[in-house]
Amino acid sequence: MNGISYNDLLNSVKGYINNSKDLELIQKSFSYASKLHKGQKRQSGEDYISHPLSVAFILSEMKADTDTVCAALLHDTIEDTSATKDKLEVLFNKDIATLVDGVTKISKMNFSTRDEMVATNTRKIITSLDEDVRIVIIKLADRLHNMRTLGFKSELKQRENSLETMEIFVPLAYYLGAYQIKGELEDLSFSYLKPELYTEINITLEKTKAQLEEITYELLQDISKILVDKNIPFELQSRVKNVYGIYKNMSRGKKISDIHDLLAIKIIVDEIKDCYLSLGAVHSRYTPINSKFKDYIAMPKTNMYSSLHTTVFGPNDRLVQMQIRTRNMNLIDTYGLTAYWDLNKGDAATTMQEDLKTKFQFFKSLTEINALTADNQEFVSKVKEELFDSNIYVYTSKGEIIELPYGSTPIDFAYKLHTDIGNTMVGAIVNDTLVAVDYILQNKDRVKILTDSLSFGPRDEWQGKAYTMKAKRMIREFSR
Ligand code: MN
Predict the structure, then answer these.
(1) Which residues contact 95 (CB under 8 A, 6 or more apart)?
(2) 477 labelled catalytic
(3) Is the pLDDT of residue 43 over 80?
(4) For range 154-161, the mean pLDDT
(5) What is the Cβ-side half-sphere exposure of residue 100, based on CA atoms within 13 angstroms?
(6) Around Cβ 313, how many Cβ atoms within 10 Å?
(7) Is the alpha carbon torsion for 108, 111, 114, 119 positive or negative?
(8) In angstroms, rounded to a whole number, what is the distance separating the alpha carbons of residues 53 and 309?
(9) pLDDT exceeding 70 applies to what percent of the chain?
(10) pLDDT in tens, 253-265
């Protein structure tokens, strides 16, 4: 990774900010940070300022607002230099000071320190989402640049940082919908955690590359023709699954050629109706695999990802996934919440914060766990267990998707919908069949909770039949 210069950053920023006042503020942040970090070096031997510059550059590629770019340039000044929050507020503005302070409070984590410290820090990262999601986004960009330059650290540090990235930052990126960052963080961590496997998969990929390229070329030509015929304006992109994603499939016993989305073609169109028209066109040309069709437009994922997915038999009977979406969907599918900077321009920060609270399902669970736990270590282990580990997705009777930790029962589902529903529940129907309240919910189950306002409330023994912290706690509270 070559060093980013201030000019690189400026050119990137000028692609979407042209107000001279904003550009002056960025220039001022850079000068101030350079002055404060003067003489400090990174382990790579570069001047320290190269790090905040790179973090700001990553954010400018996401079209981050001026305050975020400035805060990225200044993000290590409170921690590593004489700067203070008050001083930054006087010199710059309140938002920039708050962002830098927020990033600083999430101080450098270290697995070799006592668990309690790690837990405290993790909790800070996660709860700062509530304060201003931009703090977490800056932290993600900071982590991304540190992972890109991890080669200069000791082997122990490489492993520690990679583990931490997998445990905390990858799930965060996923929940914010930032798939591009998630994929890169996974591959970087994987290359340090399992270097032999990482190399092995890359070699295998290299071998199939020529064939994949040929297929991609053929498909792009063919699909272009079909869509031109139908008069649908479009753009085509292709992507090969990331190394870590391939590894996960192979560790479940799949051969590389059996991975249904190893090669994906993205069909990007202007309007939603064109998504469905394109789907019809693709299906009339290539045979789809029935079970792999997903309509995430009608039912977006819980992190707001929306797209049509279909896997078809492509040239040479090679499986190919088609991802069909509009331009705006594609931005959200790639950058997640950070795409709002592009979509909502001036008002992005407020809209992000509001949508995070109302539309992104994990945020509500996080807030609940946060409110229910005083102990930091318990908080972190609960978040990992309920949010960062394997989850299942079930449907309400209205077709809404609800995300729950694996092991959840209808009791958890009921309390997840609403405390009152849990408290008046008398039974549950899953896929049209009456089930016991301790039935373990499976992916794609359709769940309907039977309630009776005259019920005596949840029974004490349900505590042992529930999985989530919220349900257990609510049952305990009810019986008091
Ligand atoms: Mn940093």
Answers:
(1) 67, 71
(2) no
(3) yes
(4) 88
(5) 31
(6) 13
(7) positive
(8) 38
(9) 96
(10) 888 888 889 999 9
